Amino acid sequence: MAERIAVYMAGFPSFLLYFLVAVALLAAFSFIYAKITPDHEWTLVKQKNSAAAIAFGGAIIGFVLPLHSAITQSISLLDCVLWGIVALIIQIAAYYGLRLAIRDLPTRVANGEMATGILAAAFFVGVGLLNAASMTYY
């Protein structure tokens, strides 16, 4: 039993390093996303704006999906960070792409339009899934 615990513990530093890098990338994404949206997402969520919470939640999930792939597919921590940055750029680009399709997207979300928040979340998760699926070496 002690040997099994020792084997698990030997991998703990790598786990911790990848986890902390992922959390840092998630924090960076959340910060950038909140900064590029005209109405600060955290403020809208604190004001109990469900549409903003759903859209922001979808953006976070849409980023974490390819980040998961980056962690599982990477050959090193640096490789993981680089793919994490690619995921971040793709998700930010997805936001701007959706704004082209729905020109008044920020206003509609800020006004609490649930349909727009749900559509935005679904779009961000969909882009995240495509992004994640594309992160492969095969």
From TrEMBL:
It is a multi-pass membrane protein. Pfam families: DUF350. InterPro entries: DUF350. GO terms for cellular component: plasma membrane. The lineage of its organism: Bacteria, Pseudomonadati, Pseudomonadota, Gammaproteobacteria, Chromatiales. Keywords: Cell membrane, Membrane, Transmembrane, Transmembrane helix. The chain crosses the membrane at residues 50-68, 80-102, 114-133. Belongs to the UPF0719 family. Signal peptide: none annotated. It is found in: Cell membrane. This is DUF350 domain-containing protein. The keyword Transferase does not apply. The keyword Cell membrane applies. PANTHER family: UPF0719 INNER MEMBRANE PROTEIN YJFL.
